[in-house]
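Researcher: Go.
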Amino acid sequence: MSEMHEVSGSTNGAMDIEARAAAFLQKRRYWNWSEADQAELRAWLAEALAHRVAFWRLEATLGRTERLAALRSAAYEDITQPRLKKNLSLRTVISAILVLIALAGAGAWRFLSMPDEQTYATPVGGGKTVILADGTRVEMNTDTVLRASMHADARKIWLDKGEAYFQVKHDSIRPFTVLIGNRRVTDLGTKFLVRRDIERLEVAVVEGRVRFDAAGGPMESKVALLTAGEDVVATPNTVFVTKKPPHQISEQLGWRRGVLVFDHTTLADAAAEFNRYNNRKLIIADNAVANITIDGTFPTKDVEAFTDVVRHILKLHVEVYEDEIAISR
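Model: Structure:
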C-alpha cells in the first residue's frame, strides 16, 4: 500500500507541474503577457528541471499536435469575441491541454526523464537530420558533434566540431544561438550553414539574417550582420565577410545531396574535402601537384571516381595503399 501511495503522490505532483506549465503557456499564447509574467515564468523554470521539461513538452505539443491546433483555433475565436470572453475559463483550456498530455501515455513520462542538454553526433561519412523540440530542423554533415539546450527563454546549440545546416523556427521571445568556441551566431529568422574546422569557422546565410559576433577575447568588438548570400570566415585573429552568388552557396551545400562540387579547386583542398568523408585518406605526395586545380561533381564517398579523373585527365600518378591513396607526378 505504501508503494501505491508513493506512486500516486508522484503522479499528483507531476500533474500539478503540468497544470502550472499549462497556465503559463495559455496566458503567454492567448492573453496579455507582461515583463512581470516573464520574470515569474523564468523563476518557476529555474526551480526544477521537471518544471522546464513540462513547459517545453507542452510548448512542443502546441506546435505539432493536430488536436491541439484545432483547440487553439476554437479558443482564439472565442476569446476575441468580447461577449464570450467571460465564458472561457482558464481551467477549461488547462484541462483540454492536460487531456492531450494524458493521450501521450508512457511517451510523456519518458520525455520527463530527458536530460537538460542533448548531444547528437555523426560518424565519418555519416549524416543525420534532427528536429528539435521547437521545430527547428538541423542537418548534420560528416563527423559532427553538437549539443542542444532548449529553454523557455533561450535556445542554445554548441557546435563542438563538424558542419550543420540550420532551418530555424524563429521565435522573437526565445533567441536561437549557435556557439562555436568563442564565436556566436544568433538567428534573426533564417536558414544558415555553420562549419567548424580546427583553426577556421565559416558561416553562410541561405535565407534571412544572422548576427555573428564573439563571446569574448580579442575579437569581442567584431560584430557582423549577415544577410542571404553573405559568408563570413573567421580565424583566431581575423573576420572576413564576402558576398557569394547563389550557385556558390549551393555548391557549399552539395553534401546535403551527397556530393562534393569542385570549381577550380586545388588538389590539396579537394583531397582534404574527400578525407572528411572517408577513412582511406588521399595524400598529395608531391608538393608540385598540390596547386593543380580540378573541376567536377563527385559523390562524397566515391574516391575512385576522383582518382580516375586525376589519373586519366590530369595525367598524374596514383598509388593505392591499404589506408591511403598517394597522388604525385
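Model: Residues 2-112 form one domain.
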